[in-house]
Design a protein that fits this description.
Helices cover about 55% and strands about 15% of the residues. With about 170 residues, it is α/β, with parallel strands linked by helices. The protein has a single domain, classed as P-loop containing nucleotide triphosphate hydrolases (Rossmann fold). Strands 2-3-1-4-5 form a five-stranded parallel β-sheet, with helices on both faces. Helix 1 crosses helix 7 and helix 2 crosses helix 3. The longest helix has 24 residues.
């Protein structure tokens, strides 16, 4: 694998973009450590994401997320999968953009719906109309994903593994 100036890779994008899945594949291909901010929040808190939302509300979750992203973005040679709402905080956007190479996994709502349908761990999708919720969130957040990203990668070009390869190619790492 060619030498590269990329020191770490941070994945952003909406729920169901594949940040967690593609992040694991990327880390595997690079032999870097994989970290997921949601998993780190759960490990530090000793509670799962829905429980944190229930007890502390979204505001409490966002505070925990800010602390974790500040800590994780200071590390090197990691692939970090963020949560879909991380970009809503200015401090997170700054840390992500300044401390690593940020990839926006661009994904249409239809695909997000398919990929999140079976998983009930996303409190923001506990709504009678997840399509409307995802559409609203994407319209608010898409400009923020674009603002923070160094590269934009569509996630419909095949499997998670294939998307991971496309990312390495775009970064000149293969
Ligand atoms: N490129 C892809 N093609 C098909 N399915 C995918 C792809 N990327 C992710 N998935 C699937 O979508 C689901 C949600 O992915 P996940 O990594 O949890 O997304 P995120 O972390 O962005 O919310 C998982 O079941 C995963 O296997
Ligand atoms: O979009 C969001 O605000 C959220 C996305 C989730 O992560 P994924 O994007 O990995 O599903 C998780 O952080 C939490 O449920 C909130
Ligand atoms: Mg995830």
């Amino acid at each position: 694998m060619a030498q590269s100036t990329v020191q770490n890779i941070f994945l952003v994008g909406p729920m169901g973009a594949g940040k967690t899945t593609i992040g694991r594949q990327l880390a595997d291909l690079l032999r870097w450590e994989f970290v997921d901010s949601d998993h780190e929040i759960e490990a530090r808190t000793g509670a799962d994401i829905p429980w944190i939302f229930d007890i502390e509300g979204e505001a409490g979750f966002r505070l925990r997320e800010e602390q974790v992203i500040d800590a994780l973005t200071q590390r090197r040679h990691i692939v970090l999968a963020t949560g879909g709402g991380a970009v809503t905080r200015e401090q997170n956007r700054r840390h992500l953009h300044d401390r690593g190479t940020v990839i926006y996994l661009e994904t249409p709502v239809e695909r997000q719906l398919e990929r999140t349908a079976r998983d009930h761990n996303r409190p923001l999708l506990r709504t009678p109309d997840p399509r409307a919720r995802l559409t609203e969130l994407l319209s608010q957040r898409d400009p923020l994903y674009r603002e923070v990203a160094h590269h934009i990668m569509p996630t419909e070009r095949g499997s998670a593994r294939e998307v991971a390869w496309h990312i390495l190619q775009a970064l000149g790492m293969r």
